[in-house]
Amino acid sequence: MEALFSALADVFGTDVTYSSAARFAALLAFCALGETIAERAGTLNISTEAMILAGAFAAAVGFDMTDRVTIGLLFAMAAGLVIAIVHANLSHRLTANTFVVGLTLNILVLGLATFLNRNLEPYSKRAHVFEVPVLSDIPLLGPALFGQSWPFYLIYPLIPLSFWLLYRTRWGLEVRAVGENPQAADVSGIDVNKRRRQGVYLSGLTSGLGGGYLLLGQVGLFEEQIVGGRGFIAIAALIFGGWTLRGAVAGCLLFGAVDSFRLSLPTVGYEVTAEVLQALPFVVTIATVAVFAHRTRQPAALAQPFIRGLT
Amino acid sequence: MTTQEPQADPVEPAAPGGRAVIYSKAREAGVVAGLYLSSVAVALIVSAALVAITGGSWREVFSALLDGSLRAPGRWGDTLGVAVPLVFVGVGTVIGGRAGLINIGQEGQLTFGAAVAMYAGLNLFGPGPFALVAMLLIGLAAGAFWAGIAGVLLYWRRVPEVLTTLLLVTVGAQVVGFALQRQWLLLAPIEGRSSRNIVSEQLDPSRRIGRIELFGNEFPISVFFALAFVVVVAVVLGRTTWGFKLRMLGRNARTAQRAGVSEWRYGMAGLLLSGGFAGLAGSVMVAGGDFGNFRLVPGFAVNIGFDGLLVALVARQRPLLVVPLALVFAALRTGSGFLAATGVEREITQIVQSLLVLALLVPPAILFIRERRRALAAMTART
Question: Which residues, including other chains, have CB under 8 Å from residue A27's CB and lie 6 or more apart?
Fold first, then answer.
């Protein structure tokens, strides 16, 4: 136990840890923001993984074609949206089981990305780093929050924007109503499945953008294992946060820190078994969610299909 | 993606006569068949287009797949061997699905079950056949244990099983990878393997599942075992009170609760069984010889867990449908081994599989909506 604390102290005394934690947290946050809106509307959208991967691959293709990061990010959002359109219309228009659709999409996109990557081999590289003057000189947190590659900064406007959308607009109110009591929402004239589809679309846009950020802001070159289950960790982050945006962002920060802790541990001189390090984020995620999940209340109609006139 | 059929007349004919009923039934069957055929056709056309766009020839791909799965000597035996674990995973998933549970971590349960079964197979003493049966049962228990973690978290801490089962896949892979690196667990002694080769010892020949040779094709006898097993599961699910209660829980948990079906007891049973059969699939893979040549190797599960899950998803909770679908998926897998000659990446089969699954989701959904529309129209016509 003592060794763990001293390791924690060592790791979190270096500013590299904070930088990588912020990067991981940003990726999770991109996905978790849209995912929270989708889940508040009642979709437990497990195709985030597919959306991130599609976004990352599309970003690589876009960058390869035009050599511009902006175009790559736009491609990424479009790819995420395409996945979302397939998912939303299959599960909220045709009422196919959302888990079945999501899981199949995950497998399909993994196959597609692998197949196309072998054939196209898109070339891409990391976007340039932009250091915000003055702010990036703050010790420890400065470089982490203000010394990243520029797509990173997209997360800053996106968080308040999602807040405004979900909690301050009529649309957001309707989304939340649809996730809590679809029958009542339906009676008061809201098109339940339309709101749910829109929630999934938003989730596709932000997750796709997250994928674009992952590729062009963090990794640089596409590979099939680039996402590695982070879409599911983002879902865990919002469960940890009790389906509120604030909590979801906190969860993203926590899981981002865990991810960066595991990467920094060997660099500050601790020898840990490789498998333990690999499994660590997943074990911590399961454990945290297990501790916190039952204290929160999920949207009452989460993962329940709405079919008009039934029940 | 969506195939829209022409809107049928919503007004039901008043008191239809005998011939009219036969006509409308035939038309209904035609619509259903047309829907399924066009969906599958769309999936295949999209896959073929993908091959064509990337510079391949879909004819060559198709014939290579057929050669690799059926026509070339000895291949259909291989296909049968690959279908066995798919059937086990698929049937297990059907049981869990009947209880309304979404277990998507079969890959992890399978890996863990295979590793524990391998450990048992290498270390148990006793005569061969008994050790083999014990090993299979231990693998089953291990898979159930791995799914049980998710079950405990679901019923004790209300963590969605969709999430935990999947996250446990990665954890399971790492646990098995850890064991495979340690000589006191699974790693074979250094004699007889090169030091970079991370494999377990080979299973003793007396503890392997027997193989049959038929017309130059070889397959394990677990094929018959799997078939018998599917029938048993179908009967238990369809014809017993237990199966009925399980289905009631899956359809409407609240009704089930009022009828005295304990949610956690039946749900847990469904989850344990689905994990257990994934574990059994893993142990059958270890002892059957179609995977890894009776050794445990890194990445042993080779996506059989996920493919089996897809089989179950297409089967839509009907155990008997698992068998033909497992054969199709197994054929795609063995066929993909022959794709190298065509210059098309073998991932194309993964794409075909998932497109087929998506396509086969559409017809039942359209039929369901159509039926509801008719019922609503009939109701409004009455009032």
Answer: A52, A210, A213, A214, A218, A230, A256
